Amino acid sequence: MMMNYIQADTAGDTRDGAIKLHGPEAFAGMRKAGKLAAACLDMLVPLVKPGVTTEALDAAAQEYILDNGAVPACLGYRGYKHTICTSVNHVVCHGIPGSKPLKNGDIVNIDVTVIVDGWHGDTSRMYPVGQINRKAERLINITYDALMLGIAQIKPGNTVGDIGAAIQKFAEAERCSVVEDFCGHGIGRLFHDAPNILHLGNPGEGEELREGMFFTVEPMINLGRAHTKVLADGWTAVTRDKKLTAQFEHSLGVTATGVEIFTKSPAGFDRPPYD
Ligand code: MF3
Ligand code: CO
Ligand code: CO
């Protein structure tokens, strides 16, 4: 696909559709931001249990980020008023923290984005609340494996379509569906930049991956159908069939030979069970 690539240090911090290619200093910046975002998700692990409210988790995340001298990227972003998104059970993404307590058997995605020295670290994981049932556990495992199979496709010369195809092929073989209405995104000094990273597609199609690209992979996988809708609050995306959905997200950079994941868990809590 014809696409415009630009050396990031000569580009402005605007979203003009060009794909930015970054150098070593930018990688160092993303490493720091990604590590803090992942450490924030680690910090939340012991707090996620039956009875906790998602607004309490939001407050803990905000305090942690500010204490570490960073900025919560979501706070004030397009009018969003919170630090994290908390997407419970059939909420696909962008669930708003609130006063309703989590209950035993829920599954919740927590998505956090921090800004450190101007660089964005964006990551999310699934958290089981108490004891969850086998189909929820299965969906979480499929979704994590889909993310990592997508990431395994990343190296210069492969394409965005290779990532999406790997995710789709695996998820559909497990009789799950891939959400099409939300995608991964370029990231760096901007929160959401080119290119879009669709979680489905055909091998060899879409933008070519080049050394120095930064983007997220963040598949949302459903037990039922792929269709979603956004609730009247303007944020909360849910499955139309109200069946369970799950998501994991990493921020990463394309290296000369493959990929560097910026948001790996310092505690080893990349996937449940977290013990
Ligand atoms: N972190 C989300 C993403 O993965 C975006 C959340 S935008 C917000 O891109 F405003 F809802 F926070
Ligand atoms: Co993202
Ligand atoms: Co995110």
What this model shows, in words?
The chain has helices spanning 24-44, 54-67, 134-151, 160-173; strands at 5-7, 19-21, 71-72, 84-88, 91-93, 107-116, 119-128, 177-178, 184-186, 193-197, 214-217, 220-222, 228-230, 237-239, 245-247, 250-254, 259-261. It has 275 residues and is α+β, with helices and mostly antiparallel strands. The protein has a single domain, classed as Creatine Amidinohydrolase (Alpha-Beta Complex), CATH 3.90.230.10. Strands 3, 4, 6 and 7 form a four-stranded antiparallel beta sheet that branches. It has a three-stranded antiparallel beta sheet with strand order 5-14-13, with no helix packed on it. The protein is globular and about 50 Å long. The mean pLDDT is 98. Bound molecules: 2-amino-4-trifluoromethylsulfanyl-butyric acid and cobalt (II) ion (2 copies). Residues 111, 113, 122, 124, 249 line the site of one cobalt (II) ion.
Overview features:
about 280 residues; alpha+beta; Creatine Amidinohydrolase; four-stranded antiparallel beta sheet; three-stranded antiparallel beta sheet; 4 helices; about 25% helix; binds 2-amino-4-trifluoromethylsulfanyl-butyric acid; binds cobalt (II) ion
